[in-house]
Amino acid sequence: MTENAATVTRTADLLVEIFRDVLGLPDLTADTDFYEAGGDSLTAFQITGRLEEVLGADVPVSLVFAYPTPRDLAEVVDADHGRS
């Protein structure tokens, strides 16, 4: 696994935990769709708020809507914020 792939995996794991907690779905996976899991604008703001706490960077809530799975969102967050 490349370093970039490992970073995306760590971020995806973090996002899975955040999504699980915010949406109240312990079985949620990295490929679970935010909308299909019952996500709405309030939970999207909760997700980005938690992510901002960890990253120390602003994460636009629009990213949750545009990239609705933890895996897809992780790729964008890592590209935009260089999480390592």
From TrEMBL:
Domain Carrier: from-to ranges: 6-81
Keywords, alphabetical: Phosphopantetheine, Phosphoprotein
Signal peptide extent: none
Pfam families referenced in this protein's UniProt entry, alphabetically: PP-binding (PF00550)
Gene3D superfamilies per record: ACP-like
PANTHER family: FATTY ACID SYNTHASE, NONRIBOSOMAL PEPTIDE SYNTHETASE
The protein, known as: Acyl carrier protein
Organism: Streptomyces incanus
